[in-house]
Design goal:
The protein is of the alpha/beta class and about 700 residues long. It is built from 19 helices and 25 strands.
């Protein structure tokens, strides 16, 4: 089969994929994949050839269309340096191809073999305390190690040369879950690389000193060799240095991905490349910078078992992943059929929950539903992790639900390539989160993650579709932009938000926002100087509450409560719409609205829970022309729209009672308890 033939297997008919191909010259979806992709990680090196034959037969029975192989196979492919054993992998490829199952081939660089660490002990990850971490677990070597990068590109090149033209190959899958568990390393290679990186980023030693504010505590560097990584110190480490270390660490890991990807692009330009993100649960990687480096955005998501409402966090993660993909269809590369193995209590999923989780991702733009893993392992650290084929085998409920889900996804094939539309964006910036998470802030428990998730859940309960956006993105398409936690704002981001409001946008900003610049320095002019003009106010003091205290406030005539945070505001053109009735700023302003240009900006100077946020958001909703949809509690109605205007609806019932959901232009949907219902509304039907 020729590479021209491979190119024709990319279904680049939707305009978003066509745009990607025109911009990059590369395919943007797994080759040969039609409909919604279904499958999971497959680790044949753990099993006998007889089991392979049985597995492929059962994959067909379950409706599997693609599997990911090879992520942890380096030691099986190259058991000794330069000695390659291809026969077993050739046979697996042949079995899958004969069965019509596409292959997402992983580069095994998340699991260097024992011989590599024996030959290169200096490539081990070093923690902040200077301990070299041994092999025998999952993860990668030090991202800055020259030996690791050379070996990683070597095995990647060997795989591309062997399988680049194989007719079953649909997608390259580089590494596995970058940043988890290795998000940083303090090896001598990393420290040397950080020194060079800092000088390149800032331009000179004097500029490094200025950016990091080293005049404080007498930390100034006199020669480049004195620049250091943030190793343990007797007291607080320089926060600007810490922030740059986070940036550096994310970029070093990205360089590892690029090195492998570039080999694959060179040898197999006809095959798209991905790596599996962990969008909401891997905070040490700046995925805005990664998203444009992959041909296909894919994500892994696992429920937080301790969270009784974890379906809301799932929704947030899926919306964030779609936003990283810039609205293009994306892949759910991994989730679980039931419980996982690495949380404190690994709660099993209830009947119907697996399908509900899967179709929540699909309703938010995923065109692939895949799991870790296909067959449950008998040995190793993840032997108690659920699988598509569980230890209980084909007589189990899990297996029946896996097969039912495969059939359901096949029925939804025409969802492929349809899009999700959102009128609201929530700002999300990993760099700001890193900065806010550093020690010695006014209150440790004013969490950006909790703040964003609370604001997100308010919109989730109001059934308003949400995108996420970087503060420097073009926001003009959104009727409403929310900034729940924007502690750090670059100058460009501040100008962008000001222009958005001036040109007619509606912006709502949460507490502790616009505080520092891109180097974690407080700007002259107050504690919110970046946003003071557009908000029409100044923050004069942060007033966090003592543990267990509350402050009461009134907003839109409704009594509300703050449990963590208040601020002393001085109005500079804004109108007060809420005030404190007690607490550290009694009778002070708690919430504001400021007309600015053709738009308006609101500010909330306190933390509020999900219920109380309804009072804060009512005004912005009205200004933006948004209406909270009336649906039963904990029931979702998701919509994807085709280019011809056809509406694809997915209703999810997270309750223990059956519900009826009204649908514009179609008959009501009867959704069983804990279940899912779908509808297709043709473009010719006028919504009533």
């Amino acid at each position: 089969m020729t590479r021209d033939r491979f190119q024709s297997l990319d279904p680049s008919t939707p305009s978003d994929r066509l745009e990607h191909a025109q911009r990059t010259g590369r395919p943007s979806w797994p080759l040969g994949a039609t409909g919604l992709v279904y499958g999971g990680d497959y680790n044949p090196e753990q099993w006998t050839r007889e089991t392979w034959v049985e597995d492929v037969h059962l994959m067909q029975e379950a409706g599997v269309t693609m599997v990911s192989i090879g992520m942890f196979s380096w030691a099986s492919i190259e058991p000794r340096r330069g000695e390659f054993h291809w026969e077993w992998l050739d046979e697996v490829f042949a079995l899958l191809h004969e069965a019509g199952i596409r292959v997402d081939l992983g580069t095994p660089t998340a699991a260097p073999p024992a011989w590599f660490f024996r030959e290169h002990p200096e490539a081990r990850v070093v923690d902040r305390d200077g301990r070299a971490l041994g092999p025998g677990s999952r993860g990668m070597a030090c991202p800055s190690s020259p030996a690791y990068r050379l070996a990683a590109t070597g095995i990647t090149r060997a795989l591309a040369e062997r399988y680049g033209d194989h007719p079953a190959l649909a997608l390259w899958h580089v590494h596995n879950e970058y940043g988890a568990p290795v998000g940083e390393s303090f090896s001598r290679f990393a420290q040397d690389a950080f020194r060079d990186w800092a000088l390149r980023r800032h331009g000179s030693l004097d500029a490094v000193n200025a950016a990091w504010g080293t005049a404080f505590w007498g930390q100034a560097f006199g020669v480049p060799e004195e620049i250091h990584a943030p190793l343990p110190t007797p007291s607080m480490q320089n926060p600007s240095l810490e922030l740059d270390w986070r940036r550096f660490s994310s970029e070093q890991i990205l360089e590892c991905f690029r090195a492998e990807r570039d080999v694959l692009h060179e040898l197999t330009p006809h095959v798209p490349v991905t790596t599996n993100f962990m969008a909401h649960t891997c905070p040490n990687i700046d995925l805005w910078k990664w998203a444009d480096e992959v041909d296909v955005v894919s994500n892994d998501h696992y429920l937080i078992a301790a969270d009784a409402r974890n379906f809301v966090e799932l929704a947030l993660d899926a919306d964030l992943t779609r936003s990283l993909a810039r609205g293009r269809p994306w892949m759910l590369m991994e989730h679980s059929t039931s419980g996982v193995n690495w949380q404190g209590r690994n709660v099993a999923k209830r009947p119907g929950e697996m399908a509900r989780n899967s179709l929540s991702h699909v309703g938010r733009g995923a065109d692939a539903v895949m799991f870790f893993q296909w067959r449950a392992s008998l040995k190793g650290a993840e032997k108690f992790h659920s699988a598509m084929l569980p230890h209980a085998g084909t007589s189990s409920r899990i297996w029946r639900e896996v097969a039912e889900l495969g059939a359901q996804l096949e029925e939804l094939a025409d969802l492929q390539g349809t899009r999700v539309h959102a009128d609201v964006a929530i700002l999300w910036d990993w760099e700001s989160h890193w900065a806010q998470d550093l020690p010695w802030r006014p209150a440790d428990d004013l969490s950006h993650r909790a703040q964003i998730q609370t604001w997100y859940e308010r919109l989730w309960r109001d059934h308003i579709a949400v995108d996420f956006a970087h503060p420097e993105d073009d926001l003009s398409a959104y009727r409403l932009v929310l900034a729940p936690a924007s502690y750090l704002l670059s100058d460009a981001a501040a100008r962008n938000l000001e222009a958005y409001v001036h040109d007619g946008g509606n912006l709502v900003v949460g507490p502790f926002s616009g505080v520092v610049d891109g180097e974690d320095g407080v700007r002259p002019g107050g504690l919110n100087a970046a946003l003071a003009p557009v908000l029409g106010l100044e923050v004069h003091e942060f007033c966090p509450l003592r543990d267990g205290d509350e402050a009461r406030l009134v907003l839109d005539g409704k009594p509300l409560r703050s449990r963590l945070w208040c601020e002393d505001l001085q109005l500079r053109g804004a109108d007060a719409i809420g005030s404190y009735t007690d607490g550290p700023v009694a009778e002070g302003v708690a919430a504001t609205r400021h007309a600015y240009g053709d738009g308006a900006a609101w500010y909330l100077a306190s933390d509020l829970d999900v219920e109380d946020l309804a009072a804060m958001f009512s005004g912005p909703y009205l200004a933006a022309g948004l209406t909270a949809r009336d649906l039963p509690e904990d029931v979702e109605l998701l919509e994807r729209r085709a280019e011809d205007g056809t509406r694809h609806l997915i209703a999810l019932n997270h309750t223990a009672q059956p519900v009826t959901v009204s649908v514009d232009g179609a008959a009501p949907l009867e959704v069983p308890a804990g279940g899912v219902a779908t509808a297709r509304v043709p473009a010719s039907v006028t919504a009533g």
